[in-house]
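ugh finaly. both done.
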Amino acid sequence: MGNPDGARGWEEQRQGPVLRRRDQVQPGTTDQRLLDTEGDSEWVHTDPWRVMRIQSEFVEGFGALAELPSAISVFGSARTPQNTSEYEAGIRIGTALVEAGFAVITGGGPGAMEAANRGAREAGGVSVGLGIELPFEQGLNPHVDIGVNFRYFFVRKTMFVKYASGFVVLPGGLGTLDELFEALTLVQTGKVTRFPIVLFGSAYWSGLVDWLRDTVVAQGKASERDLLLFHVTDDVDEAVALVTKETSR
């Protein structure tokens, strides 16, 4: 529609909650463009369409995981080889978590994730894998009972936190570190409460812990109490006890 004197420079177009004026006015109407069968398919790559995809991922994730029993998320490297002490530790952790009454959630990939899923499945528990679309497609490992694949990392990370009561973090790379520091930040800022985080493997994690204490805390970039947001252990039973003690079970 236009202004009372019809001056073209003040033309307005309302598209739902969006207001367009002057040279931002688009020809036609939203319904017209929806029902028009001609034209290219570039619209499927636009930001508004991405919002719908993001929304659908949240809906699918919530729907698939809403009825899970209490769960613990286990993180670790996709590159951890089988028949190694780290892989065996992942199996034992998955088994022990199920025996403690928890479902096990991982990223669904190979390596340490597969080990935890395998331990959970072999113990008769619920084994969950939350996969991610990557250029090098890995797919969900065969020990996953409930699997959900995501396009967006941030949606996937929401599911890891929302449906878990704590994290066990096995040795891993950049993806594992991303998930670890996401969880630490959420606890530090009070976005989540009663959320224990256990780092398994003191030899692997000691350098990071030293850096946090001797550099980050020492220079005032974090407080001494932030070092209490996580625990480090080499014992499977202790890891399970630490990560489950703050839950309601």
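ok and the 2nd:
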Amino acid sequence: MTFSPTSNNQITVWLSSPTCQDAHDALLGRLIAIRSRFIGPKDNPSQIVRGNLGEFIAMRVAETVIPSNQTFAPNAINPLNSASISGLDLTYLFFHQTDENLDLAFIQEVKTTGQSSLAYADNLIVDYGKLFGTNINFTLESRLQAISSSLEIERKLPALVQRVLKLGATSPQACSKIRLVPTMVHERNGTEPFTKMVAIRQAIASKGWHPSTIEAWAIALTDLDDRLTRLARGHK
């Protein structure tokens, strides 16, 4: 993947390297490889498809650095689907070979915005707030339960069920085995991603998460809105 990271105080800004077109070509090549059904040459992607493509981009970057034995990416694996499947955007499970106490879950929520203000990314704070919110359908416990059921029923890995359930906790402060990766896929020109992600990370930490468990990402592409349209159409 043609993105290179620059990290500072658990904020990582990913810039395409050597050019944004190189990253675009690599992403398009992967969409072709997974047999994506592109939209028409004059059609425009819906907001749902744009969001799904943002998750797809985030997943492609994450594959290079996040350790994972099992990945759950309901929308990123079919990004041109006109519907969005509810649940966590991206979850990566790491199961240590010899010590279950070292198991980890990485939860990556993604927001995609071509606006220079980057204000839409503030919704990441809302998404992570749901993990210990009042709606039981969105809590960490219910999300881990759904993942464990998928491992048992769909992936035929019943031995991992209890290990997944043990990753959870009753409060953000107790979540020693959860890592949060709030991610913004954004327009590169005229934006200040570092400042925005510092604020988002601080806001999430203020809900009780230990700062060491949060690494915020910003993934930048020039002409993002146009690129998302071209990717959806299957165009270079």
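summary for the 2nd one i guess: The chain has a mean pLDDT of 97.
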